[in-house]
Each structure stands twice: as C-alpha cells, then as structure tokens.
Design goal:
By secondary structure, the chain is an alpha+beta fold. It has six helices and eleven strands.
C-alpha cells in the first residue's frame, strides 16, 4: 500500500499504516517500509518486450487511484493509439533505463509519474503488469503481451504490431464504507454496449474494509472495450449499478 504524508506529524501515522499492511501469501521483510519523494502528476505503466537490448513498448496503461491519501488503485485505461507510445522523451527514458540495467531479453513492467518536470521513473519489474493490464492491452490492440513475452522467453522474436485500435478500461469496485457482503449480484440486463465483462469477486460473508483498516478489498470489476472512449468510460463508470453490493456494516 502507499500513503501520502503532507507534513511531519503525518509521517509517523503513514509509516505505521505502511508497516502494518499485509496480504495473505506475501512475505514480510525486516525493513519493509519505503519512504519516497512525492511526485505530482498522473501515473502510467509501460509493458514492453526486450530483444537483444531493444525495448519495444506494447501497452501504456493510465492508472486511476482513489481513497486519498492511500492511492488505492481503482482502475486502468489502455488506448491502443495512446500518444505516449510516440512520446520521444518518455521512450528515451525507457530505453536508457533498460540499458543502464543491462537488461537484454525479457518482458518488463515500468511505472512512471508524468510530473510537470517530465517523466520520472517510479519502479521497473522483470514481469508484465498486474491487475489485468496485459488483458486490457490485448483487448485494445489485438496483440497479446503475454504471448509476446512467451516468444521472447523461448528465444523468438515476437510480433508486437497492433491489430486493432480500441480503448479498454477496467474499474475495480469498492464499498462506500467498511461492511460485510451479504450478496453481490451481476445485472447483465443493464450492460452498456461496450461492456466486455462484469465479475463479482466477493461472496456472502466477505469482509470489505477500506484503508487504512485494510487494502484492495474489492467486490467486483467491470471491463469495457470499444472504439468510442466516451461510451467505454460511461459503461465502466456504471459499475456500481451493474454489480450490486448488498451488505451489512462491520460490527468490529
């Protein structure tokens, strides 16, 4: 989890919140809190494949966050024609980062903040993105980043050319307050024209607590895909109507 601290008194609380966060199956470390400079601007990620030191970006995902000051991820947007795929400064940084690391072959997921001073690197990972980003990339471009990564791993040169020009968007659904799910119902009769899928991820009895009490407690998600970005956005923003959460307040 991430938490912003705007002044000295907030640092201790933010440190405690970060240090107490945990997820099942995720290891803990003795020094597992990272203090970073706060960067303003939108956050993006680039999923790329690297062959013989040449980095080819495939998917630019624009991240949506909420629940300030905790930066909980609420969605991603992938546009097959995103102008950032042609942004000279961003692509130069991406190339120089991989060169500095000596990364010659594989797949990477690199995150940037687009600050007023230009792109700033946040992190880089030797993997594809999480939270359905590769799927969004495939739905938007018609080319599967996971297949491209597999080809690279097998010593082959992948086909990274896009086959489509669409927008693909996901929204993760969170409750308005801490609660216990009684029932989560997917209303297929209310789907808009670009809805690709709407999935309930919480069953009866699931505890859904919000930051700082708990993190990533989603009860569902909606994916929409289409050529009209306004329609796609409208369809995913209808998520709380498409997936109805019936709940009771948490008592502890």
């Amino acid at each position: 989890m991430a938490c912003r601290a705007d002044h000295g008194d907030a640092v201790e609380a933010a440190f405690e919140a970060a240090g107490s966060a945990n997820w099942p199956g995720v290891p803990r470390y003795e020094a597992d809190v990272l203090v970073e400079e706060y960067l303003t601007g939108p956050e993006i990620s680039i999923d790329a494949v690297v062959v013989h030191g040449v980095c080819t970006p495939m998917v630019v995902a624009r991240k949506q966050t909420g629940m300030d000051p905790y930066f909980e991820e609420t969605g991603h947007t992938v546009d097959a024609t995103d102008p950032l795929l042609q942004d000279a400064e961003l692509l130069d940084q991406l190339h120089r980062i991989h060169k500095a690391l000596g990364f010659e072959r594989g797949a990477t997921h690199t995150e940037f903040k687009l600050t007023p001073e230009g792109p700033r690197l946040v992190e880089i990972n030797a993997r594809l993105g999480g939270d359905f980003i590769p799927l969004l990339g495939m739905l938007a471009t018609g080319t599967d980043p996971a297949v491209a990564a597999a080809h690279v791993a097998a010593g082959l040169t992948p086909d990274t050319a896009p086959k489509a020009q669409k927008n693909a968007v996901i929204r993760f659904l969170y409750p308005e307050r801490d609660c216990e799910a009684v029932e989560v119902v997917v209303r297929t009769d209310l789907f808009g024209p670009t809805v690709h899928s709407a999935v309930a991820t919480a069953g009866p009895g699931t505890r859904l607590a919000l930051p700082p009490r708990a993190y990533m407690n989603r009860y569902g998600y909606v994916i929409a895909v289409g050529e009209d970005p306004e329609q796609v956005t409208a369809d995913v923003e209808a998520g709380p109507t498409l997936i109805e959460l019936r709940s009771r307040p948490l008592t502890d």
